[in-house]
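<purpose> Linking amino acid order to shape
<body> The protein record starts here
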Amino acid sequence: MSMLFAETLKKLRTEKGLSQRELARELYVTQSTITRWENGSRLPDAEMIFQLAHHLGVDAGMLLSTAAEGGEPPIVIMVEDRELILAGGLSVLKEVMPNATIRGFEWPADAIKYAKKNWVSLAFVDIELGGESGLDLCRALLDINQSTNVVFLTAYADYALEAWDTGASGFMIKPITPEGVRAQLANLRHPFSPGGPTA
């Protein structure tokens, strides 16, 4: 997580003369949500960062950039049950995000086990994983960490509507390409610094 964002938020709130409870009331969130943001255990999504900037009277870009500077490389995973497609996708992700920790999984259970022990910033998930559902995997990943950005991968556009109901950040038609990944990075719900070129 970004301790820089946590420290910046606390400083700005204090300078504004607001208690956690007062800021929470203005944003229609709980005081415990503000506490988690200020202790670094959670990050608000991009929309909430814009609201915070408005209420604290600061530039949203500044808050977004502090949220993106987490200190540690972001963790990105890809879950795909076909080994050849997984290998190709991982090479594309490493090209686009050279500073990130990239891991690939063929089995949803392995991805879930890994996510329970590591802060996953971004997950590329195949919708059809053999006999299992990528939609269910998305829900499981978000149950573990609501700030994980999930981007669905599929060869079929028919799944798009159902996929959006899971809280995913994006949807990509295979094959995965550097341009496609960069387009997804520009529209994440929970921004982070992926490392490497973004254009």
User: Anything to note?
Assistant: The longest strand covers residues 120-126. The mean pLDDT is 85. The CA atoms of residues 88 and 176 lie 8 Å apart. The first helix runs from residue 3 to 15.
